[in-house]
Amino acid sequence: MHHVDRNSGILNSEETFSPQDRRAYQEHFLHEVVAHAYASGTPLKKAMDDRGLTPGEIRKLEDLQKLPITKKTDLAEAQKTNPPFGGYVTVPISQLVRIHQSPGPIYDPVGKVPDYWRWKSALHSVGFRPGDIVVNTFAYHLTPAGHMFEEGVSELGGAIIPTGVGNTETQVEIMRKLQVTGYIGTPSFLIAILKKAEEAGIDPRKELNLQIGFLLAEMLPESLRKRFADEYGLIGRQAYGTADVGCIAYECPQVSGMHIHHDVIVEICNPETGEVLAPGDPGEVVVTCRNKIYPLVRFGTGDLSSIVEEPCPCGRTSPRLSRILGRADQLTKVKGMFVHPSQVQKVIDSHPEIARARLLVERPKDQDVMTLEMELKGSAEEGLLAAVERTLREVAKLKGAAKIVPPGSLPEDLKLIEDVRKWD
């Protein structure tokens, strides 16, 4: 079994910028992106005109605070009134390679440029190397994750096997026969694959060549990371990004936070006021990327984190994000997919028998489980549970259970989504 060094080396000189050089680099592309977005007539132009601002006044990183934060809901509303992209895209359709859809719904354009989503540096930092054979277990239909990670692996010099979601037995067989070295997907699906291998009498440490797991879209508890290493000899590292802006930050072998990509400006803001917070204070991750095709300036991800500025022994000099601490709203990620409170409400509204309900999200045995707990207006008709579960799957695109609970048993201050998962 051939092993490679997955812990040393830095791919890009930009990852070792001095603070002064990083500021100069980012302020240069910030002005370029803002000027291009303004000249192209994107919604940023109206926002700036309303504030009496010109592109010449947005040159320093601190100048970003003069501009409003754009939320996911703003994107969805803009695309609804001005399809297909709400006026944010600055190139003709002929210069796009794909259009994806993420929850909202929001349509995500992909430009015809190398490493559009910026995952190449992240993949190298977490341990992928040229020549790796990688199973990519993210979906390839509608949502962008499957394609964006394939693009990054290809840019780095690896080969992708687009296995997509599910088919655990097939995943094991492919890993064994092709001696796959890398995995991309959720941590819960990786542990499910390894368990399936053991159930089939396959020793993952001896019969598989799996060495590196790029684990995204879910929290990675340190206990599970340790289990991957101790039981399976497997490196498990994380990165952070969104369907709207691509890669934002990524771990290195020190696993002491996630280095912010050099082509991304991150502000940590008070989710209620938009005020930029001090390093170390938790708040919403707000990003501005070096992307003139789809220039999202001050895009509010809705995710909560904080900035770590202490030097990292790996040699990368960028500030880091601490772990993702949760959401600024009730939006919740289950099995790597966002579930909106509005989706839960749609399920409730589809069944008039339901008086009150909440979606309970739990994580027994390292697997996300969601259950719609329902108080009914009267007695349950035959087939109600099955009908609600069908609706839940149709609306959320995820399988979940329905459960009837006694009237009055749900809390008074009911949340449509109650996430009780623990990440110890």
From TrEMBL:
Gene3D superfamilies, per the entry: 3.30.300.30, N-terminal domain of ligase-like (3.40.50.12780)
Source organism per UniProt: Desulfomonile tiedjei (strain ATCC 49306 / DSM 6799 / DCB-1)
Name this polypeptide is given: Coenzyme F390 synthetase
Residues annotated as domain AMP-dependent synthetase/ligase: 146-287
UniProt cross-references to Pfam families, sorted A to Z: AMP-binding (PF00501)
